[in-house]
Amino acid sequence: MPEYRFNAISPTGKTVIGIVHSSNIIAARQKIKEIVEKNKLRLRSIEKKSTFIYKARKPGLSKPIVGEQKAYASSEVEQALIKLGYEVIYVRKKLFDLQTKPPTSEIVSFVRISADLLREKMSYGEILQLMINDVTNKALRDALKEINNDLKRGEDSEKVFRRYEHVLGKFTAYMLGLASKSGNMAEIYSATAKFLERNQEFRKNLRSALVTPTITVIALILTVIYYVAKVFPATAELFLRFDIELPPLTAATLKLSYFLQNNFLFILLLMAIPVVLLFYYYQTPKGKVNLHKYLLKLPVIGNLIHKSIIEIFCRVFYSLYTGSAENIEPIRIAAEATGNKYFEDRIKNVAIPIMIREGKGLTDAFEAAGVFTKTAISRFHSGEETGTVKNVALQIANYYESETTHKLKFLIEAIQLAIAMFIMIVITALTLISAETATIRPKYPGMSFINLIQGLF
């Protein structure tokens, strides 16, 4: 997350320097404003930590070195190089310092390898150094370097990892920060890796079930529209020039073609406006909650998504749960990890308040939220009575993992079959239209079809 440093003057005239982390300059200014007003400071400047490219040379060596360094100002980089005995050739601010999120596969690989090495009793500092040397993604490598440096300076591990949640992901950053404070880092890293692997697999299967077929259907529809609106009229209008009566299917297709040509912009706007409005609505907090709610109500696929969300919740809850007296924070983090804003909203605004204000148990709170299946509620009730809530959460996660995996495979096969049937129907319809066009004959006796074509030239 971008880092901002502010310089201010206290009421006693002393210089105060502070650092805040925020996603953008507007949010950073707001945080700094609150700090300044609370402590009655006079703000002097705000500087963003940026990447600088430098070129320097060791005295006596002909070949200079080129590198990058993060700092608040170019002068800081120059001073650091001079202290190391370098002659500075230039220091420039990097023009395009884009912070892209690394692929999920890279993060999963980092967490999984770290878990395996922790089991082998390797120190975490050595693990980070190994990963820094081997990670290929620049964004992840830079983040690990910064994390390693911050941890060496003795900073709080949870705060350090949360600082890089824009790179690692919110849940991953929280779990890794928590692991550094726990007595069993290997177990938490393994649980995190399991969650990331499972989440990645489900998203991959979901893309196979929805995205690829959707693209196929859209491409086919656009091809048909182009054929009907552009290619088909060029053939059909040949017959109209000689006053030849068109068969019903050909005539209907030609009317459709004229309609598409005359109303092209209107149809395009009719299709684009809802998409644009939906996109902007989705950017609002309320929009995300409502759209994620309707996502769970989709036929067939909605049920699978719902059960997968419960699986993720239970798997994360299992990793964080320590006892009934300290279950609020695990519930909150598990709800955020699901990625479904409606599920998260119901847990945070219904289940957790009921537990805090009314002192109700886990099962009653989850049932009131209305986002858990009857099976999950029944199992949590059993676990609450027997004191095995943690194990029950893992059982639910494993059960729904198995169920959604098998059902998703069948769903993908069913969708592929439906797409094949749709393509077959479209091709059959186009074939019928083409075949009917081929049977058209001129109505003038003695005038052959060849003569008709020749007459056009």
Walk me through the structure.
The chain is mainly alpha-helical. Helix content is 69%, strand content 9%. The strands form 2 sheets. It has a 3-stranded antiparallel beta sheet, covered by helices on one side. Strands 5-4-6 form a 3-stranded antiparallel beta sheet, covered by helices on one side.
Q: Can you give me a brief rundown of this structure?
A:
The protein is mainly alpha-helical and 457 residues long. 69% of the residues lie in helices and 9% in strands.
Structural topology:
Blueprint: E1 3-9, E2 15-21, H1 25-39, E3 42-48, E4 50-57, E5 65-71, H2 74-83, E6 87-93, H3 104-119, H4 124-134, H5 138-152, H6 157-162, H7 165-168, H8 170-181, H9 185-241, H10 248-262, H11 264-283, H12 285-295, H13 301-320, H14 328-337, H15 341-357, H16 362-369, H17 374-386, H18 389-438, H19 449-455
Antiparallel strand pairs: 1-2, 1-3, 4-5, 4-6
Helix pairs in contact: 3-4, 3-9, 4-5, 8-9, 9-10, 9-13, 9-18, 11-12, 12-15, 13-14, 13-18, 14-15, 15-16, 16-17, 17-18
Radius of gyration: 32 Å
Tell me the span between the first and last alpha carbons.
70 Å
The number of strands is 6
Strand content: 5-15%
Structural class from helices and strands? mainly alpha
How confident overall, as mean pLDDT?
Answer: 82
Q: Could you list the spans in which at least 5 consecutive residues all have pLDDT below 50? A: none
SSE arrangement, N to C: EEHEEEHEHHHHHHHHHHHHHHHHH
Tally the helices: what do you get?
19
